[in-house]
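Write out structure tokens for Phage gp6-like head-tail connector protein.
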Amino acid sequence: MSAPTGADVAAFLGQGDDTTLAALAGQHVTIITAMARAYTRGAGFNNDEPSEDIAAVITTATARLVTNPEQSEDLAIGSYRTKGGFQGWTLAELFVLNRYRKKAQ
């Protein structure tokens, strides 16, 4: 699978025709890709292309970052409140990334 693009993230968010969002996501996808590569110490990447499951992690994490780039606002859904945006890897993303992670020795 090829590396996710800003257009992929915009499509994931259901806004594939929004070129402004795709451009913003394109900037953020490089950050999240670098973080995923660092977390796994390069495992799961072949010629700078992430494996399919790591690409999915990059897409979902980028979507969270793009929807709240300042990461400063609380989100409220009914009585449930949470911090918005990217606050680190989710548990599901960690399940994927930890399959590739190389521990320091």
